Amino acid sequence: MSRTIAIFNQKGGVGKTTTNVNLSAGLGKLGKKVLVIDIDPQGNSSSGLGINKNHLEYSIYDVLINDLDSHKAIIKTDFDNLHILPATVELAGAEIELTSKNQREVKLKKKIEEVKEDYDYIFIDCPPSLGLLSINALAASDSVLIPIQCEYYALEGVSQLMNTIQLVKRGLNPNLEIEGVVLSMFDGRNNLSIQVVDEAKKYFRGKVYTTLIPRNVRLAEAPSYGLPIMEYDLKSRGAEAYLDLAQEFIDYTEEGE
Ligand code: ADP
Ligand code: MG
C-alpha cells in the first residue's frame, strides 16, 4: 500500500524542505521506494537532491497545468530508491493559472494516482503558504507531517494550520490524518527548546516523534552540494537523527499492517 504525505506548515524556515529531503533519503536507504514531489516554486527540495533546475525538460508545472503524464516528469535521483518530480520557479505562476481551472483543488491528487502504486511513500514538499498549491497537496495526501522549529513562537500559527487541515478534511479529503510532528533545530542546552518539546507534546498528544532533529550545521551545508545528509556526512548528528526518524516513521506507519 502506497502512502502520500504532505510536509506542511505555512511558516517558512521551520525545516519542511530539510525534513523532506533527508527523511525521504533515509527511507530510500532503508529500502523503501520513495517519490518526492516538490510543489514549492523555490524548488529547494529539487536542488537539495542534486537536480539542476536549468536543465529540466519537464517539471511539476507541466504536470499540473498542461496535464503532462507524471511519469514523464519524474527523475531518478543519484540516491537509493529515490525519485523526484521537481519544481522550478515557473510554478509560481501556477497558483494563479490553477484558479481558472475546473477541479482546481484536486489536480495534484489526480496526477498522483497515475504513479501512486510505484512507490511505498510519496512526500510532497509544500510552499510556506495556505494557497492553492498547498491545498492541492493536502487534498492529495493520506496524511500531514508537520515540522515545528524549536524556537520562539514555535506554536504560533499552529491553530491556523490545524484550521486549514480541518477545512480540507470537511470539503475535499475526509480521510486526511495527522501523520506526525517533527521537532527540528532542537538544542538541548537551551531551555526554550526543551519547553517547545513539552508544549508540542501537550498540543499534539501522541503525535510527536521521539526522535528530535538537532540544530546541526552539516544539515544546513548539505543542500549546497545537492546531497542528502547521509551522503554528505553520514557521521554527523543530523544524519544520525534523520536515519532514526526514518526508522521511527516506518515503525509507526507500518504498525498493524
Ligand atoms: P522550510 O522548508 O520550512 O522553509 P528549511 O528546511 O528550508 O525550511 O530550513 C530553513 C533553513 O534552516 C535552511 O537554511 C536549512 O538549511 C536550515 N536548517 C533546517 N533544519 C536545520 C537543522 N536541523 N540544523 C541546522 N540548520 C537547519
Ligand atoms: Mg521549503
Automatic annotation (TrEMBL):
Name of a matching Pfam family: AAA_31
Top-level taxon of origin: Bacteria
Transmembrane segments: none
InterPro entries assigned to the protein according to its UniProt record, in alphabetical order: AAA_dom, DNA_Partitioning_ATPase, P-loop_NTPase
Catalysed reactions, semicolon-separated: ATP + H2O = ADP + phosphate + H(+)
UniProt domain AAA: residue ranges: 3-178
Database matches in SUPFAM superfamilies: P-loop containing nucleoside triphosphate hydrolases
UniProt record similarity statement: Belongs to the ParA family.
Subunit structure: Dimerizes in the presence of ATP but not ADP; ATP-binding is required for double-stranded (ds)DNA-binding. Interacts with DnaA.
The protein's name: Sporulation initiation inhibitor protein Soj
